User: What shape does this take?
Amino acid sequence: MNSTDTRDIDAQRAATSPADDAADDARASVLRAFGWSLARDLRIAMRSKAELGVQLLFYVIVVSLFPLSTSPSRDVLGMLGPGVLWTAALLASLLSLPRLFASDFTDGTLEQIALSPRPLPALVSGKIAAHWLTTGLPVAVMAPLLGAQYALDGEALSMLAIALLLGTPILSLLGAIGAALTLGARGGGGLLALLVLPLYAPVLIFGAGAVDAVRAGVSASAHLSLLGAGLIVAIIAVPFAAATAVRIALD
Amino acid sequence: MSEFLAMGGYAWYVWMSYGAAAIAVIVEVAALRSRRKRAFDDLRMTSAAAGPVTNVRGAR
Amino acid sequence: MLINWYRFSSPVSFYPLAGTGAHVFGVLAALFAGAGLFVALYAAPTDATQGDAYRIIYLHVPAAWMAMFIYLVMAGWSAAALGFNARLSAMMAQALAPTGALMAALALWTGAFWGRPTWGTYWAWDARMTSTLILLFLYLGIIALRNAIEDPRRADRACALLALVGAVNVPIIYFSVRWWNTLHQGSSISLTVAPKMAMTMVTGILVMTAAAWCYTIAVTLMRVQAIIVERERGATWLDSLIDLRRRDGIGRSSA
Assistant: This one.
């Protein structure tokens, strides 16, 4: 009979696709949530370009000020350079972290975002990506230009750029957890620094170490591999931790 | 005895260490005692005197 | 004898257990410490190379171990607090942090005073000392976060998450610092003791570690009692505590 034939065909179609459909939906949902969140935060950040400029300027000033505290000798500066350029990057990241959640938290948008049916880790990842694009990436681009102040040669400077490109996303990711935990807490930026800087320590060690290795004429591949591995693990694990922290803050 | 205190010439290092440990223990226990006292004082001030409750054994 | 441990998962029933435990472990701590100090300061032979300065390890090693152990236990209670949303688990984690911080600080202090006569410097950037320093920062961060958040339940969950994130980081930090150390010549300084130690020395360290463990348990149980009283204010079972204390003649009535 005709109806049973159609039913059979439909049944066949249904048998092959519901799990796939669900998986596709989930994947699309995650990507859509990520994309929406990223676009939104970028749009908001672009409205206050001055603030972004100021943060980058902070980085430039800190890096430029350091030699005044020691000596202009090229040897000393060469030794200090990677550490200073990296530490200043850590501080610049810290300075911009409150921006990640605070304004959305105070006007209630964050609560709406958490209540939405979209997966919160994906939404949070979008915010973190936007944060990196507006903070970490400019620093990574700027650093080699400033590195010339520290008598670093071209090879060291390109290693600096690569290491920062790998490391600054980790800083944004780890920092997001701290930023979410300190929402609505007293103590401001100092508390955030206290929570986040110990977590930053390995990134600092391997990131600055990579540049030091190149300066010493040794291979920095181990440093970069470890940074890369750390980045992958952070990308996978941190959004869930950060989303949990956001939910805790919103309770 | 003075030989014991001298610790083979390393008296400063040894006694600064053991002294710090002793101070740490004393301060921690003292701070805890005063925290307990403060907690119970706050409790007395804020709670009404209720009748004896039987579900708590021998609190000290 | 089967004890239904779940019975103790509420602050009400745990309170008396904590009190008894604090007394028992306090006495044990005093006994172990007495024996340990006897070995450390008297019975153990003087070291050939380091002289009597080596006696600091009887404090330094237990303190450093405790700083690490306490963090792990605290992380365990934190996981329970987040997983079961249990108030008492969070209170235990809250009670452990200050003692852990104190142990870490003591480990750093004694390490410095051991390093100076032995290796000529108060501070050496070896992996263990640096990791202990970071551990201290992690403890202080958790304590600071607890004080910064007004709502106690929210503080419970936030500190629990922070403790767990820190727990993941501690091994990473340790290995990264150790790796960083091996790369830099001149860092052959490692604040470890020679592998061959006389039996008395090993015994001394173990006894002092046992003393540190018992002390930690006693102090933590005392602290969790204070925390329970602070946070369970308004619960009627607490009133009985005041009555009991007045009956036993403990504590003056408040002015």
